[in-house]
């Protein structure tokens, strides 16, 4: 017990000091956690613990909470709108990458057939933990390129299930036919979806409602933790991954009015557990073996990165622009953490040589170490290659800004609102999640940024609480309500002006403390009467 506490204290101390130092250098904290794991292993001679199933379970829950927060971003409605990103782009990427990697490893490098299959399935996956962590922290998950990357990563996480089923069939212990395995998996999937989306939604909504109405933060937080862990354990019991259960639970909560509060409350737990995952990754590093084989490791990593980037770019060009395809391909060109699981299962089943497993694991770790340095520079790299103007938000511009108007949406109504603001010389900034609208505003010489106003982090960045008011001109009712809820949660003392098109939309916003709701049809009727009264009557 004393030793365990010592290891925990050392892990917290070393990771904190390292990350404070690395933060000043602009290096991702992921690197600090990985280095912490390696330091602990060699400082306390814990090499026998780097294969501990208990530690792996603890680390895996970092991925669980990360996938839960992604589920909060993607409701069923949104997943339906992301069918192309998830099911077409995702499926094509996994299938074609696996086929190409298999062909290269088996026919060019003469790797044994079963080992080549394992390698191709593992290297077809990208790093959910690294990529989604960056996309969320940089707010790029709400951009078109971030949406495409997130969609492919979601499919990859789902694809882990059939991959593991396939591996179990390949092992000598697999005594069931493929048909039986697929039938049982399909039945289990139906049961999980029905229970979580039908029964689970009612239970989750009821639990969140009563815990929120208690106005005791720890009870609400306890309810959220219970929901995440229970859904994860249920999915695992039915033969799926923990993270898939958490992802579905997040999607269920995304359909409720509590998803913004849940997302902000769960963030510290997700970040701590994700740090634990990377510490455990660092514990797997055999420094001497890594030094002896560094040339081979870097060579394999470079080859995989180039192959995956080219394959993904070519596939994405079918449905996306050159810039979006290139950015997404580069962001997902690394190897992911689920490869550890695939290599471990294959090795235990006698499908992969131990020495090859050790080498491939170091390739994955090297990939995860390099990726945080690489992914944060993708926008600059693509900008130099394509001369594309990145539409990111420089938050330093808003530090001292006050009494500015925030115009949310730059479609038809937004353009007229901007003209009226120009006439009275009012300072304003345009925020829109449509790149086309932002480009139009920039071309007209206006200050505009790409972003999602329903995100608390963006509201903090643009100092919404210091603004003179927020004008919401969007048409989508769900997005409009989400933005209003986020703004009112961020600050109550704000002028919030919202345009609606129907009485139904107006009623949907009635429960929110909005300063003014403008019904476009009602306003047109009023103006018509005013113009009639002011006209000179003709006899």
UniProtKB/TrEMBL annotation:
<feature type="transmembrane region" description="Helical">
    <location>
        <begin position="219"/>
        <end position="238"/>
    </location>
</feature>
<keyword id="KW-0812">Transmembrane</keyword>
<feature type="transmembrane region" description="Helical">
    <location>
        <begin position="358"/>
        <end position="375"/>
    </location>
</feature>
<dbReference type="InterPro" id="IPR036291">
    <property type="entry name" value="NAD(P)-bd_dom_sf"/>
</dbReference>
<keyword id="KW-0630">Potassium</keyword>
<dbReference type="InterPro" id="IPR038770">
    <property type="entry name" value="Na+/solute_symporter_sf"/>
</dbReference>
<feature type="transmembrane region" description="Helical">
    <location>
        <begin position="27"/>
        <end position="45"/>
    </location>
</feature>
<dbReference type="GO" id="GO:0006813">
    <property type="term" value="P:potassium ion transport"/>
</dbReference>
<keyword id="KW-0633">Potassium transport</keyword>
<feature type="transmembrane region" description="Helical">
    <location>
        <begin position="6"/>
        <end position="22"/>
    </location>
</feature>
<keyword id="KW-0050">Antiport</keyword>
<feature type="transmembrane region" description="Helical">
    <location>
        <begin position="115"/>
        <end position="137"/>
    </location>
</feature>
<feature type="domain" description="RCK N-terminal">
    <location>
        <begin position="405"/>
        <end position="518"/>
    </location>
</feature>
<dbReference type="GO" id="GO:0015297">
    <property type="term" value="F:antiporter activity"/>
</dbReference>
<feature type="transmembrane region" description="Helical">
    <location>
        <begin position="57"/>
        <end position="74"/>
    </location>
</feature>
<feature type="transmembrane region" description="Helical">
    <location>
        <begin position="181"/>
        <end position="199"/>
    </location>
</feature>
<keyword id="KW-0406">Ion transport</keyword>
<feature type="transmembrane region" description="Helical">
    <location>
        <begin position="149"/>
        <end position="169"/>
    </location>
</feature>
<feature type="transmembrane region" description="Helical">
    <location>
        <begin position="297"/>
        <end position="316"/>
    </location>
</feature>
<dbReference type="GO" id="GO:0005886">
    <property type="term" value="C:plasma membrane"/>
</dbReference>
<dbReference type="Pfam" id="PF00999">
    <property type="entry name" value="Na_H_Exchanger"/>
</dbReference>
<dbReference type="InterPro" id="IPR006153">
    <property type="entry name" value="Cation/H_exchanger_TM"/>
</dbReference>
<feature type="transmembrane region" description="Helical">
    <location>
        <begin position="328"/>
        <end position="352"/>
    </location>
</feature>
<keyword id="KW-0472">Membrane</keyword>
<dbReference type="Pfam" id="PF02254">
    <property type="entry name" value="TrkA_N"/>
</dbReference>
<keyword id="KW-1133">Transmembrane helix</keyword>
<keyword id="KW-0813">Transport</keyword>
<protein>
    <submittedName>
        <fullName>Cation:proton antiporter</fullName>
    </submittedName>
</protein>
<feature type="transmembrane region" description="Helical">
    <location>
        <begin position="86"/>
        <end position="109"/>
    </location>
</feature>
<dbReference type="InterPro" id="IPR003148">
    <property type="entry name" value="RCK_N"/>
</dbReference>
<feature type="domain" description="Cation/H+ exchanger transmembrane">
    <location>
        <begin position="17"/>
        <end position="377"/>
    </location>
</feature>
<dbReference type="GO" id="GO:1902600">
    <property type="term" value="P:proton transmembrane transport"/>
</dbReference>
